[in-house]
Design a protein that fits this description.
Strand order of the largest sheet: 1-2-5-9-8-7-6
Structural class: alpha+beta
Order of helices and strands: HEHEEEEHEEEEHHHEEEEE
Distance between the termini: 61 Å
Number of strands: 14
Radius of gyration: 19 Å
Shape: globular
CATH architecture of the largest domain: 2-Layer Sandwich
Number of helices: 6
Largest sheet: 7 strands, mixed
Helix content: 10-25%
CATH topology of the largest domain: BirA Bifunctional Protein, domain 2
Strand content: 25-35%
CATH superfamily of the largest domain: Bira Bifunctional Protein, Domain 2
Length: 284
């Protein structure tokens, strides 16, 4: 039966997600996804799913929130969005790959998100290392947060969370942010975006795991470079101590680290090593 909650159609441009329909469409023919839960409001989908993972939740568990009130980005930055204006989703993976290769998971997620956003909405986005999806004008469409979790009797897992601005208006966004509706100038349905995204994650994740996390053999490294707005650019990297490194972002290494050629040589930076990565506009 359809969702009969009184709030489902309270905003025709922001209808509630139908959990039963989503789970049926996603899990019916999937080798990865096991369940989809949609909650009206939550503190943090990543925190809730991490707690479930510690209690041996299976790989392929998906948690979606219509409104997240204590969302976190990387380095505990705040992520907020009006109710039903975006996609706030976390999912649990337990990849059987070398631990060092897990640094590619947020990058894999970014590629899958860029692919699905283009396919469903027509918006051509780019991935910014390590965890952002950007519109063509450089404004932020989405953020990604991957967190390792332990379990009592199952392999260690990774909870991956994504916050994507879908129907958020310009007035509701920070100056540096944008949404699919702002870019397209029309209404974008969240359900097809979510389904397309999770199917793209499954396709890429299964190939990456089969290759034991090898980003080259799986094709992930090649495709990440094709979507990247970071590689090849002059970047200013702010470190946790406030110091800055300026150089050319040359590559992503086998462990998902950013390789930067600076004045004092080449450095490899993991996402936990940096606070900000900004692309510098080329000087005339």
């Amino acid at each position: 039966m359809p969702d009969a909650s009184p709030s489902r159609w309270s905003d025709l441009e922001r209808p509630a997600l139908d959990a039963r329909a989503l789970e049926t469409a996603l899990c019916r023919d999937s080798a990865l996804w096991r369940s989809v839960e949609v909650v009206d409001e939550i503190g943090s989908t990543n925190a809730a799913l991490a707690a479930a993972a510690a209690g041996d939740a299976p790989e392929g568990t998906v948690l979606v929130a219509e409104h997240q009130v204590a969302g976190r980005g990387r380095l505990d930055r705040v992520w907020t969005s009006p109710p039903r204006a975006g996609l706030t989703v976390s999912f649990l993976l337990r990849p059987d790959v070398p631990a060092a290769r897990r640094g590619w998971l947020p990058l894999l997620t970014g590629v899958a998100l860029a692919e699905s956003v283009r396919e469903v909405s027509g918006v051509l986005a780019s991935v910014k290392w390590p965890n952002d999806l950007l519109a063509a004008d450089g404004r932020k469409l989405a953020g990604i947060l991957a967190e390792s979790v332990a379990a009592d009797s199952l392999p260690a897992g990774v909870v991956v969370g994504v916050g994507l601005n879908v129907s958020t208006t310009a007035a509701e966004l920070p100056e540096t942010g944008t949404s699919l509706s702002v870019v397209t100038g029309g209404t974008v349905d969240r359900a097809p975006v979510l389904l397309g995204f999770l199917r793209a994650v499954e396709r890429r994740y299964r190939g990456w795991v089969r290759a034991l996390g090898d980003p080259v053999v799986s094709g992930l490294a090649h495709d990440y470079l094709a979507w990247s707005s970071t590689i090849g650019s002059t970047v200013e990297v702010t470190m946790p101590d406030g110091s800055a490194l300026v150089g050319t972002a040359r590559a992503i290494d086998w462990d998902g680290r950013l390789v930067v050629d600076g004045a004092e040589g080449t450095v490899e930076l993991a996402s936990g090593d940096v606070r900000h990565v900004r692309t510098r506009v080329a000087e005339a």
